[in-house]
Amino acid sequence: MSVALIAGSSVGCGQKKAVDPSGSPTSNWQDWLSSESATSVAPSTSHDWGTLPAGMIGSDACIECHPKQAEAFSQTTHAKSARRIQREELPLGSDFVDGKSGRLYEAEMTDEGMRHRESVLGTDGELIAQDSVDLVLELGSGTHAHTYLGKRDGYWIESPLTWYQQTSQWGLSPGFDGEDSAMFDRVVTTTCVFCHVGEVRADKVQPSQFSITHASIACERCHGSGVQHVADQKSDENLSPSEMNIVHPGKIARENRDAICSQCHLQGIVSSSSSDFDRWDFHPGELLSEHVTEFQLDEGEESFRIVGHTEQLHQSECYLQTEVLSCVTCHHPHPVSGEAVAYRDLCIGCHASPASCDVPLSVRIETQQDQCQACHMPKRPTNVTHAALHDHRIAVHDESFLLAELSVPKSASAPASEKPRLVAISATDHLEETERERRRLLAFHSLASSGGLPGSMKDDFKVAQRELVELFKSGVNDASVRTTLANSYFAAGKWSTAENLARSVVESESVGSHTYVGAVDVLARVALRLQDNEAAKSWYRELTQMRRVSGDHFMLGVCELNANRIEPAILAFEQALRIDSTLLVAHEYLAQIFQAENRMDRSRLHQQAARRLRAISLDQQP
User: Fold this and answer.
1) pTM of the model
2) Cα separations (Å) of 223 from 4, 213, 217, 249?
3) Is the peptide bond before 53 cis (omega within 30 degrees of 0)?
């Protein structure tokens, strides 16, 4: 069974006919690829693997003594945050169209799970390229959405298709906007799966190549390592509760308890961490803000984000005026099976007086069954298409009046600011001033490099660049700062300074770390600028061993071509197209190479693909 999909807005409905690749001569350029070697650069064969998080004993060790808690947790959505695709749960529904991409998608069941197929069509409806990924893992509990992962070249890949439960339809996965040139090139890292799986084994040289050894959230994510705890329980020592060597979230300070939830439920537009910190390094009982600061753009209007629960709750007067309200007040991690949470009962613990609500009881019962959360935590659309969640800012919202069938009073909210600001949404007052500034400036640079910085903040970014240089001169020179400055100096045309900074990172950091990879990227670009082709080729080859990026293989092909190594150049360009079949410049290079080599059939195929890709680009321009 299969379902054909064209990504995007509703233009037409019903079943679409799947594309037959044999019907279009343009697709044959991919047939030629399949007759060549699978990759131009083989994946790493490193056997130096490590477990994340380190020092854990695993959830199975907890069940023997805590069977009731384990059973209760197994019924929660956290316990279903990642799992193998279940055939009976495979969602197949009507197709949809996106005017941005015009791409055709098909979803079909397989023996192992599911296969998603993408067909890139030209403006004439002819097939330009086709790709598919076999999917074996599903992320998300299914309450709101089903997102799928598969493996390619040793890397986990996220499909651009997500099934949205609330609307019962397919849509683009979060972060895909229909304008991405390559839809099966999103590599999933260990950081990406942190909030969905309990344990992974990662290649230390290629951290993005990993295996998932415990799907779904594990006990130790909230309780910390159980190694010593289990050893103590098996000993003959008579230990007091304070000596149990395990974290009980209900018995620690509220801010530390909330930090456990904030690992995944507090995410801004960009984050910045302390030097060498990885998400998997966090230990329950600590303050997350000691290690990571989340930032958001304050644009005068609240952006309702799907991972903004903790931030919203901390803005609530209910939270600010009591010391007991926390995430687990309403979201018990080990709920009594079969019992629905009586949210209203939790509210009237503090708001017992009939005068606590201005809406007459009869109206509350008639409109919302007298459920406090329905009005004071209304469900609102999020920054993720097709997904809506309850607003965790417990308050009287405009929706509160509408839900109670009352008129909305004139807003007394402050007017939108003329220019957005980058602000921390996690606590920073306990950090030293230097560390606060370091995280803010690195976040500024990260947002700018990702293209997420508004144009109105261009001058602010220039100031941030100067401030980071001054911070570096004052002695704040960790690898993240040096790599960030190396990129800034390269962009400014100061290649020698950029090279020196990047080399210092390569010499001091572990191979495969994000700072090491970032520094090698700078060194590759500097070498090209300085016309040192051999050095550039060496650096780009190393990049292809550490990450799956079409541009790395393309630039390796350019270096091989510069060295007059035609066949290695062809293989590198073809690998770039295996990752991104719509990489126009790779088609153009191959068309020229094959023409020069008098391999005219192949040259014409890439010329045709390039021509149709250019036509799509022109057609999508406003």
Assistant:
1) 0.88
2) 45, 19, 12, 7
3) yes
